[in-house]
Amino acid sequence: MTDKQTMAGRERVRISISSANGSEPATQQQLAGELFRKGSSTYLRYQELPDAGMGRTVTTLRIDPSGLRIVRQGDVQFEQTFRTGMRHLGYIQTPQGRLEIETVTHFFEYREERRQDLSLYVHWSYELSVMGEEAGSFRIELTAVPEVTA
Questions:
Q1: Alpha-carbon span 86 to 140, nearest angstrom
Q2: What's the confidence (pLDDT) of residue 5?
Q3: Which domain of life is it from (predicted)?
Q4: Where are the beta strands (DSSP E) in 6-52?
Q5: Which of 29, 75, 103, 141 has its CA 20 to 30 A from that of 21?
Q6: Residue 59 structural domain
Q7: Shortest CA distance to 100 belongs to which of 133, 131, 136?
Q8: Ramachandran quadrant class, 7 (left: phi over 0; alpha: psi -120 to 50; beta: rest)
Q9: What distance lies between CA 138 and its chain's CA centroid?
């Protein structure tokens, strides 16, 4: 993507993700990405970090006031939807095979603010099952702020 394309409705952002499973300490990620809007949805796209164990994978979040959908494409393919009080089926496709996943979303919060210090805030919590087995209770907090250009 060229800088010109980025300027046409796409905003470069710095993304912070905090993810906790149960009572374990949260893991933190800092990523570069882009934010753009289509209709009533906000999209956030970023390349997974090499140490995430996903090879070359691009993650796209489609966010609206009712929930979010995560799609990963590349070496790992993944689709999952999160909406408060709802159960959703999804999958993870890796070179080793396909895993069916299920989430029950307990909480979802989404804010967009046009201030210097915050563009996007998303917080959600859910129960995860993989192939019918409980895999944990997760809490995710994500912020995206405009990248400062010199």
A1: 17
A2: 38
A3: Bacteria
A4: 10-21, 27-38, 41-47
A5: 75
A6: 3-146
A7: 131
A8: alpha
A9: 13
Main-chain phi, psi angles of 50, to 5 degrees:
-55, -35
What is d(CA 89, CA 87) in angstroms, rounded to the nearest whole number?
A: 7
Measured CA distances, 116 to 14, 23, 112, 144 (Å): 13, 33, 12, 11
Regions in the chain scoring below 50 on pLDDT: 1-7
Q: What is the pLDDT of residue 3?
A: 44
Instruction: State how far the Cα of 65 lies from the Cα of 104, in Å rounded to an integer.
Output: 17
Nearest to 53 by CA among 92, 102, 101: 92
If you write DSSP's letter for every residue of 42-72 in order, what string do you get? EEEEEEPPGGGT-SSEEEEEEEETTEEEEEE
Number of domains in the chain: 1
User: What CA–CA distance (Å, rounded) separates 122 from 62?
Assistant: 11
